[in-house]
Amino acid sequence: MKGERPNSLALALKGFLSDYLPRVRGTSPHTILSYRDAIKLLLVHLSRKKGIPVANLTIEEIGVTEIVAFLDYLERDRNNGVGTRNGRLAALHSFFRYVAETRPECIEQCQRILNIPFKRASVRPVEY
Fold it and tell me: Does residue 2 register a pLDDT over 70?
């Protein structure tokens, strides 16, 4: 019995988290874990919404509408603030920049995702 080959999403995630972030970008271990957790939350959310096991999700199934719905879910259902939402979006932007570099056939999809803007947060005055 042959084992199934990893799909494009699995390969992209492995390259992003195991090679690109630590070796190419020199990202700290804490940042890598934060990015991993943001992507994990997205994958679990998509799996529930689409009724597909996480292992069967592909890059092509992650679009702007899915990302925006995920960001709304973070704020509405998980009660995350704007700063946390923007941090998760920054992780996704970084991942899709990597995907655009390594998978040229996905550039259009990645460009649309990279155009999702960060939400403005109200600035609290600094108290001394």
Answer: no
With 0-12 CB in 10 A as exposed, 13-18 as middle and 19+ as buried, what is 82? middle
Q: In angstroms, rounded to a whole number, what is the distance separating the alpha carbons of residues 46 and 57?
A: 8
Spatial distance between the Cα atoms of 22 and 34, rounded to a whole number of angstroms:
13
Q: What is the mean pLDDT of residues 41-68?
A: 93
Q: H helices within the chain, ranges in order?
A: 8-14, 29-50, 64-76, 82-102, 107-114
Task: For residue 21, count other CB atoms closer than 10 A to its CB.
Answer: 21
Token pair for 66: 């899915």
> 115 CB contacts (<8 Å, ≥6 apart)?
64
Nearest partner of 70 among 87, 88, 52, judged by Cα: 88
The structure's pTM equals 0.88
> How confident is residue 111, by pLDDT bands cut at 50, 70 and 90?
very high
1 has a pLDDT exceeding 50: no
Q: Is 92 helix (H, G, I), strand (E, B) or coil?
A: helix
